[in-house]
Amino acid sequence: MSANTEVNRAVGWSIVLSVLMIVAGILAIIVPPASGIAAMILVGWLMVFSGVAHMVFAWRAYSGWGLFWETILGILYVAAGGYILLHPVAGLASLTIVLAACLLLESVLEFILAFQLRPLSGSGWLLFDAIITLILAIMIWRTWPASTLWVVGTLVGISMLFGGVTRLMISLATRRVVSAFRGELPEAAPGH
């Protein structure tokens, strides 16, 4: 198989994945409660698997107090993951309030940094970002727990949408470069 064919196939699959990510992101934005709960279920399973891995690692690598503490940590991960799996909306509510607190802290730090960098060109954009982040944090905080049903799912959807668009633009640019250099790529030697 030639190098051109392999590159074209990889770019084609990347474009397909990009479109799927864009569609999934749009769906997540349209139905944020479902995407938020799906994200929490994924987090729950990851915590359960992580807890099991901690316990297996503890039994293989530790003895004494190390075994005890690593096993306790594994049990806590499994219990928290199990709770999230059984009560994903409660997990989503907790994650939403933590997200609001993180955004509030981020905005405070951005305000400080914006005023420290005030003489520099472009520091106004940092101040603008701090204001928008603060507004978002307050909006989530003031509407909590009702915001639980839209915040995480919407943010996951936006992330997927922009990730898909970015990947699509990179894939299309790669396709243009490959088309421009078509015929210049050496053929793969037999057996490689």
From the structure above, extract its key features:
mainly alpha; 6 helices; 192 residues
Please indicate the percent range of residues in DSSP E strands (runs of 2 or more): under 5%
* Count of all domains: 1
**Average pLDDT:** 82
**Share of helix among residues?**
over 70%
Tell me the number of helical segments per DSSP (H or I, 4 or more residues long).
Answer: 6
Order of helices and strands: HHHHHH
State the end-to-end distance: 9 Å
Q: Can you summarize the main beta sheet?
A: none
Query: Can you tell me the overall shape?
Result: extended
The low-pLDDT segments are none
Radius of gyration: 23 Å
Structural class: mainly alpha
Q: How many extended strands?
A: 0
Compose a concise summary of this entry.
With 192 residues, the protein is an all-alpha fold. The protein has six helices and no strands.
Textual characterization of the structure:
The chain is mainly alpha-helical. The chain has one domain. Helix content is 83%, strand content 0%. It contains six helices and no strands. It has helices at residues 3-30, 32-61, 65-86, 88-116, 123-143, 151-180. Helix 2 packs antiparallel against helix 3. The longest helix has 30 residues, at 32-61. The protein is extended and about 65 Å long. The chain starts with a helix and ends in a 12-residue tail after the last helix. The mean pLDDT is 82.
